């Protein structure tokens, strides 16, 4: 597997420059992933993003050639193996898993294809990628390969989960269960990687006004409770990484609501969860 853009040689040469750490973002070709890529670039990082969509990769190459891109379906074992071989040469300091796939399960019953994809993107690929990235960070950190500024924080593994994963409630969707498992997995990695001076941060997001969310809601997601702008979400994420927060949940109003609901009787919670919060959706794949 080769990078999807043509500036690989110059990119690798630039890695030798001092005080320029590298970040790899899985699912970084659009939405919050791309916003995080741009924020890291503005802060002086080398940025590598991985995405599945050929069209998004091509658009990103044309508009932002300073970002190194790889096209890969991370749910495909063979493609993922090839990607890992390419990324091994990057002595990255930070690794962010932003990939995700959502389908409104309050409306649609998952068929076999939907169910398999939900598991693959939100849990199985995440676990495989996190395992590989943790081993690479241990190697890089041990041998001092990451070219770190003494003022920088420790190397970090970061994943974007969902506020849906912090509650234990009846009628939980497969998406919510995957995100809950992601939170638990990140917590285990955080404890296991502490002796290696590697931080692990999990971000549990509420509704963010991204293009994908708007597409899933007929172009308008303003009715979503406590929805935040993408720029605000990026600010929260970057601060959580800098402050080394184990589980950062926001917006806070959404957190307080879920905490209150979690204390409600299960039969009441079941009734609340089943009430439709969305406009009538259509079957759109993210």
Please supply descriptive tags for the structure shown above.
alpha/beta; Rossmann fold; 7 strands; globular; disordered C terminus
Provide a short characterization of the protein structure.
The protein has helices at 8-14, 31-42, 54-63, 77-87, 112-143, 174-193, 211-215, 230-242, 252-262, 266-274, and strands at 22-26, 46-51, 68-71, 94-97, 156-162, 199-205, 247-250. It is α/β, with parallel strands linked by helices and 286 residues long. Strand 1 (22-26), helix 2 and strand 2 (46-51) form a beta-alpha-beta unit.
What features would you describe in this structure?
- The protein is α/β, with parallel strands linked by helices and 286 residues long.
- It has a single domain (8-274), classed as Rossmann fold (3-Layer(aba) Sandwich), CATH 3.40.50.720.
- The protein has helices at 8-14, 31-42, 54-63, 77-87, 112-143, 174-193, 211-215, 230-242, 252-262, 266-274, and strands at 22-26, 46-51, 68-71, 94-97, 156-162, 199-205, 247-250.
- A 7-stranded parallel sheet has the order 3-2-1-4-5-6-7, sandwiched between helices.
- It starts with 7 loop residues before the first helix and ends in a 12-residue tail after the last helix.
Shape: globular
User: Number of DSSP helices?
Assistant: 10
Helix content: 40-55%
CATH topology group: Rossmann fold
Give the distance, in angstroms, between the N- and C-terminal Cα atoms: 24 Å
- Give me the count of strands: 7
Radius of gyration: 19 Å
Order of helices and strands: HEHEHEHEHEHEHHEHH
Low-pLDDT segments: 145-151, 276-286
Q: Could you name the CATH class? A: Alpha Beta
Count of the domains: 1
**Main sheet: strand order:** 3-2-1-4-5-6-7
Average pLDDT:
80
CATH architecture: 3-Layer(aba) Sandwich
Structural class from helices and strands? alpha/beta
Kindly estimate the percentage of residues that lie in beta strands according to DSSP: 5-15%
Main β-sheet description: 7 strands, parallel
């Amino acid at each position: 597997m080769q990078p999807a853009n043509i500036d690989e040689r110059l990119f690798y040469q630039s890695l030798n420059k001092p005080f320029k750490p590298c970040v790899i973002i899985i699912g970084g070709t659009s939405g919050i992933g791309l916003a995080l890529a741009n924020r890291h670039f503005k802060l002086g990082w080398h940025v590598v993003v991985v995405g599945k969509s050929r069209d998004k990769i091509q658009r990103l190459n044309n508009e932002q050639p300073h970002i190194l891109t790889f096209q890969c379906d991370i749910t495909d074992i063979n493609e993922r193996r090839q990607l890992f071989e390419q990324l091994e040469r990057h002595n990255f300091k930070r690794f962010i898993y932003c990939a995700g796939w959502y389908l409104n399960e309050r409306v649609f019953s998952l068929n076999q294809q939907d169910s398999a994809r939900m598991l693959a993107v939100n849990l199985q690929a995440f676990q495989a990628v996190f395992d590989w990235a943790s081993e690479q960070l241990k190697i890089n950190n041990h041998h001092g390969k990451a070219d770190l500024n003494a003022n920088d924080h420790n190397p970090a593994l970061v994943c974007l989960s969902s506020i849906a994963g912090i509650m234990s409630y009846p009628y939980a969707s497969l998406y919510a269960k995957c995100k809950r498992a992601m939170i638990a997995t990140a917590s285990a990695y955080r404890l296991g990687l502490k002796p290696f001076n590697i931080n692990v941060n999990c971000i549990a997001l509420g509704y963010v006004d991204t293009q994908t969310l708007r597409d899933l809601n007929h172009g308008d997601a303003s009715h979503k409770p406590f929805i935040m702008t993408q720029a605000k979400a990026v600010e929260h994420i970057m601060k959580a990484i800098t402050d080394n927060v184990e589980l950062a949940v926001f917006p806070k109003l959404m957190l307080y609501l879920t905490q209150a609901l979690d204390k409600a009787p299960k039969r009441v919670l079941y009734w609340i969860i089943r009430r439709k919060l969305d406009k009538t959706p259509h079957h759109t794949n993210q």
